[in-house]
Specification:
49% of the residues lie in helices and 15% in strands. By secondary structure, it is an alpha+beta fold. The termini are far apart.
């Protein structure tokens, strides 16, 4: 059977053309040769001139190329040094996948971490222990806590999460931040600083909705100015807290109840007598305030009313 050399040559030309196209695509994705000064790398756009330091631009260019190679939505490099209380932490984390970082939200890891360390008291404890190792008695003194029991209440979740530990190089009962957790705390604070940066935009960070809210709607969308006006109109004194009148408007009522709920200590269980003791100086009809705190989900209680607590 005679061979059709013309057809075979045409087929070879077609194959060579396809291979050339693949090679162009590979180079465009950053898999061969030096990266170009500008242009797209896969779905990531090259951004020349982002920083005056060529070394920084080299790192950024490499991250852009890495995104193109792996198809990631982003890549992150960070480094830092932190020294306090005679202890130093130095770290370099290079070419971290942003896909993996986003995954910390979807698998609820971020939620668990923020819930563990996010209270004012626990952040205050971490601040003190970042500065230097301390005993429980030292923490009580520095943070103005009511008792060692209150200190242990906040230390326990931090110990369980291995954020802090009992320092074996110090006297017994002395606690310190785990060296391998310092980086995470500092970088978390760096992220928060970026979140509150007002260079490009500003926002109010106090619009918190309490965890026991029965139904979240527009009543919770009070601005900082609305909250200020409500507090001025409804309270005759802020220190000590004295309620002039309980408003009928739902948005203002929620602002008032949130302020009153702030007089209770989170994590503590109160008897009804103790709840009344807190509420009576605030408002004459303290039973109504107590009922509303339950109805609107700021507080919860046992079925027999023997214990109350913030939600």
């Amino acid at each position: 059977m005679d061979r059709d050399y013309g057809r075979e040559i045409d087929a070879l030309k077609e194959m060579i053309s396809e291979m050339a196209g693949c090679l162009r695509d590979t180079r465009a994705a950053g898999l061969g040769g030096a990266p170009e000064a500008g242009g797209d790398k896969g779905h990531i756009t090259k951004m020349p001139g982002m920083h005056p330091d060529p070394a920084v631009m080299g790192v950024l260019s490499r991250l852009e190329d890495s995104c193109a190679r792996g198809g990631d939505i982003g890549r992150v490099t960070h480094m830092g040094v932190f020294s306090s209380g005679g202890r130093q932490s130095t770290w370099v984390r290079d070419d971290i996948s942003a896909d993996g970082l986003i995954g910390l939200i979807t698998d609820r890891t971020a939620e668990k971490v923020l819930a563990c360390i996010g209270s004012g008291e626990r952040l205050g404890i971490l601040l003190e222990l970042l500065r230097q190792p301390l005993t429980v008695a030292g923490l009580v003194e520095r943070r103005g806590l009511k008792s060692t029991g209150q200190a242990y209440h906040h230390l326990k979740p931090l110990l369980t999460a291995d954020v802090i530990h009992e320092d074996r190089n110090s006297p017994k009962g002395t606690y310190a931040v785990q060296p391998h957790r310092v980086e995470g705390i500092i970088m978390l604070l760096a992220g928060i600083k970026d979140m509150v940066d007002t260079e490009h935009s500003s926002g109010e960070w106090g619009a918190e909705i309490h965890g026991g809210a029965r139904m979240v709607d527009e009543r919770y969308m009070a601005t900082a100015e609305e909250e200020r006006k409500a507090l001025d109109a409804c309270f005759s004194s802020a220190e000590p807290l004295v309620l002039r009148e309980l408003p009928s408007k739902q948005k203002r009522k929620l602002i008032v109840l949130k302020t009153v709920a702030g007089q209770f200590e989170r994590g503590r269980r109160y008897s009804e007598k103790e709840v009344n003791k807190v509420l009576k100086p605030i408002y004459e009809d303290h039973t109504t305030i107590r009922r509303y705190l339950i109805e609107y989900g700021f507080m919860d209680r046992t079925p027999d009313g023997s214990a109350y607590w913030l939600t």
